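Regression test case RT-17, inverse folding.

Input:
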């Protein structure tokens, strides 16, 4: 049995360790981390998945971001990630469970744009598709910039929420 719950302050280092285990070394050098530096994650969207023994099996976090258009206007969005599932639990639906649980919380608040950098074959099943109008901090492969929600009219640079 897996329990999904909001991440608590005491979970912090356990979640960091899970991310260290699941991602390549130097994950914090990824361009997406520039959007997170000095900005608090969205607490109610940071979730943990624990097994029946209370052992951490997966975690997801979200950050607030803004898109700055060429005219200087901005619009808010969410950055999904990091998300990771412990190797012993991968392929059991936990990643999907975490994403769906976060979406349920997000959708309660009304239409919200969500951005991530990832693989469309995985995230496509959760409503994410390639978006062309926004520019992530370099270096980011544009083919991996995916969005959920109405991104049609949104163009510009993706910035940390703290910049604006
Ligand atoms: C990506 C990750 C979170 C998925 O979690 P999970 O619990 O294993 O995924 P689920 O059980 O919900 O889904 C499993 C399915 O997704 C597929 N899948 C997993 N990662 C995928 C990827 N990167 N691209 C395409 N498909 C992927 C699996 O092949 C499986 O397919 P199936 O349903 O056809 O058998 C997990 O594999 C992980 O932690 N990976 C290492 C860290 C990472 O890459 N995080 C994401 C960064 S964008």
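Golden output:
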């Amino acid at each position: 049995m897996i329990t999904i719950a909001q991440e608590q302050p005491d979970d912090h280092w356990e979640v960091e360790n899970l991310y260290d285990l699941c991602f390549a070394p130097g994950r914090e050098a990824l361009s997406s981390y520039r959007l997170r530096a000095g900005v608090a994650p969205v607490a109610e969207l940071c979730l943990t998945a624990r097994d029946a023994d209370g052992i951490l099996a997966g975690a997801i976090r979200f950050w607030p971001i803004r898109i700055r258009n060429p005219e200087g206007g901005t619009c808010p969005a969410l950055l999904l990630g990091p998300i990771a599932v412990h190797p012993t639990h991968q392929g059991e639906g936990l990643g999907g469970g975490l994403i769906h649980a976060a979406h349920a919380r997000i959708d309660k608040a009304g239409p919200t744009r969500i951005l991530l950098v990832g693989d469309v074959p995985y995230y496509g099943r959760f409503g994410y598709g390639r978006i062309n109008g926004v520019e992530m901090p370099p270096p980011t492969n544009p083919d991996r910039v995916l969005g959920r929600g109405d991104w049609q009219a949104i163009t510009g640079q993706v910035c940390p929420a703290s910049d604006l």
